[in-house]
Write a structure and sequence with these properties.
- Keywords: Oxidoreductase.
- GO terms for molecular function: aldehyde dehydrogenase [NAD(P)+] activity.
- Belongs to the aldehyde dehydrogenase family.
- InterPro entries: Ald_DH/histidinol_DH, Ald_DH_C, Ald_DH_CS_GLU, Ald_DH_N, Aldehyde_DH_dom.
- This protein is α/β, with parallel strands linked by helices and 504 residues long.
- The protein folds into 2 domains: 285 residues, Aldehyde Dehydrogenase, Chain A, domain 1 (3-Layer(aba) Sandwich), CATH 3.40.605; 182 residues, Aldehyde Dehydrogenase, Chain A, domain 2 (3-Layer(aba) Sandwich), CATH 3.40.309.
- It is 38% helix and 21% strand.
- Strands 16-17-18-15-14-19-20 form a 7-stranded mixed beta sheet, with helices on both faces. A 6-stranded mixed beta sheet has the order 11-10-9-12-13-21, sandwiched between helices. The chain has a 3-stranded antiparallel beta sheet with strand order 7-8-22, with no helix packed on it.
- A hairpin with a 3-residue loop joins strand 1 and strand 2.
- Helix 3 crosses helix 4 and helix 4 runs parallel beside helix 5.
- The N and C termini lie far apart (68 Å).
């Protein structure tokens, strides 16, 4: 099997894309010769076949990563040098922004402008942030034992890390995982989603061009049930980091525990509430709510998928939000105007439509949307949808839809709003819109969520931690917390004057 495939990309023409495995800075086919197909979500047609990594391939990637960790990376290289290489990688990604964004758009269905300005831009910023932290990992000096001894701590890299990333933000999730891991001194065995592996593979060539040593970044595309399971159970992988569904997160936790008890960080699903009080600016609140639910066509773990509106402004707000839904820039991914593209697959589209139907069957009201986009042709679009007058027993309220569907209900009091917001097994994010500063502070503290936005929604920053309460995950990404997740703390006791006699 060839490790590269020529693809015709809108606006760029024919590009030779890597579709093999990247192990020890070399492109190789899967030892089994097996492949899997990727599909263009805007057309439903096959895009390319990609090598499917099996156990022998993962073993080879782990061995390359372990060798690099012991010899050319890890504690064998100064933090400042790791940072310089990450900065070089960020520069190369910025240089190739047009090309990478075009492939990200083609593979995932997101608008090319959004991919370029959002996904590529934020990935560059993330890599640069962690490049700056690479030589700023500090321990403590514990000097409180008189002249007996001195103790200090070392924050050392965990080692070889398996990383399993999702299809909704393929490039950005790569940066979120690789940036802190490499800055901390870890080496990586990366499994991109089988639906969107192409930009993760493209970045391997950029990493090699940047001068990152062989074995530091290895990429083994494959299915979750096969390649992902192998990574999760591998006895020489020290940590696994995963972003995706709660169900898969549970399976990874079990696999990690049943193998070598490897460390685990999980960023899982959400059913994030957004509270709108009658003091809020409704036009502004509708803009942020729209960003929260219809950005990336609703395929976002922290999407503002449940809105609770104070009863005195409930009907008015739904009118304002309906106008935003109907103004969404739906279109083909290659169109610069598009900010709302297709869902990732036919299966995801059909799942979203089934949720909408369940809402109707249980008595909810469709304010707008609720069906396939009439111009979908063979693609996987679902219109921006508002489902109103829901109650807590409904499936559309309790379960993550992961599509462009928002459910709405009303509340009377602040206490009721908080109760409704927290009535979920998830706890990834939440939002509150109010012009009462004291109320804002009270509610921010009371919401069970890892991120709370006040009078805005959905904006993240590389320097601010992100992660979930309850079943939305374990650990944090981004910020200094993100790099801590790739280190382990060693306490060193250095004797100065203590002696003992034996036997005691």
């Amino acid at each position: 099997m060839s490790t590269h495939t020529e693809v015709n990309v809108p606006a760029l023409g024919k590009i030779n894309l890597p579709t093999g495995l990247f192990i020890n800075n070399e492109w190789v086919p899967a030892k089994s010769g097996e492949t899997f197909d990727t599909v263009n979500p805007a057309t439903g047609e096959k895009l390319v076949a990609v090598a499917h990594a099996g156990k022998e391939d993962v073993d080879a990637a782990v061995a390359a990563a372990r060798k690099a960790f012991k010899t050319t990376w890890g504690r064998k290289i100064a933090g400042a040098e790791r940072g310089a290489l990450l900065n070089k990688l960020a520069d190369l990604l910025e240089r190739d922004a047009e090309k990478v964004a075009a492939i990200e758009s083609l593979n995932s269905g997101k608008g090319v402008r959004i991919a370029r300005e959002g996904d590529v831009g934020d990935s560059v910023a993330c890599l640069r942030y962690y490049a700056g932290l690479a030589d700023k990992i500090f321990g403590q000096t514990i000097d409180q034992f008189g002249d007996e001894k001195i103790c200090y701590t070392l924050h050392q890299p965990i080692g070889v890390c398996g990383q399993i990333i999702p299809w909704n933000y393929p490039l950005l999730m790569w940066a979120w995982k690789v940036g802190p891991a490499l800055a901390a001194g870890c080496c990586v065995v990366m499994k991109p989603s089988e639906l969107t592996p192409l930009t993760a593979l493209m970045l391997c060539d950029l990493a090699k061009e940047a001068g990152i040593p062989a074995g530091v970044i290895n990429t083994v595309p494959g299915l979750g049930a096969t390649t992902g399971e192998i990574i999760s159970r591998h006895l020489d992988i020290d940590k696994v980091a995963f972003t995706g569904s709660v169900g898969t997160g549970r399976r990874i936790s079990v696999a990690a525990a049943e193998s070598n008890l490897k460390k685990v960080t999980l960023e899982l699903g959400g059913k994030s509430p957004l509270l709108i009080f009658d003091t809020a600016d409704l036009e502004e609140a509708a803009n942020w709510t729209s960003l929260g639910i219809w950005f990336n066509s609703g395929q976002d773990c922290c999407a503002s998928s449940r809105i609770y509106v104070q009863e005195t402004v409930y009907d008015k707000f739904l009118e304002v939000l309906k106008r935003r839904a109907e103004a969404a820039a739906i279109g083909q991914p290659h169109d610069e105007k598009t900010s709302f593209g297709p869902l990732i697959s036919a299966g995801q589209r059909d799942k979203v439509l089934s949720y909408i139907n369940s809402g109707k069957e249980q008595g909810a009201r469709i304010v707008t949307g609720g069906q396939k986009w009439p111009q979908s042709n063979g693609g996987f679009w679902v219109e921006p949808t508002i489902i109103a007058d829901v109650d807590e027993s409904m499936k559309v309220v309790q379960e993550e839809i992961f599509g462009p569907v928002i459910v709405a209900a009303k509340f009377k009091t602040e206490e009721e709003a908080i109760e409704l917001a927290n009535n979920t097994t998830y706890g990834l994010a939440a939002g509150v819109f109010t012009n009462d500063a004291r109320q804002m502070t009270r509610i921010s503290g009371a919401l069970d969520a890892g991120t709370v936005w006040c009078n805005q929604y959905g904006l993240l920053h590389a320097g601010v931690p992100f992660g979930g309460f309850k079943q939305s995950g374990i650990g944090r990404e981004l910020g200094t917390y993100g790099i801590e997740a790739y280190t382990q703390v060693k306490a060193v006791h250095q004797n100065l004057s203590q002696t003992i006699e034996w036997p005691l």
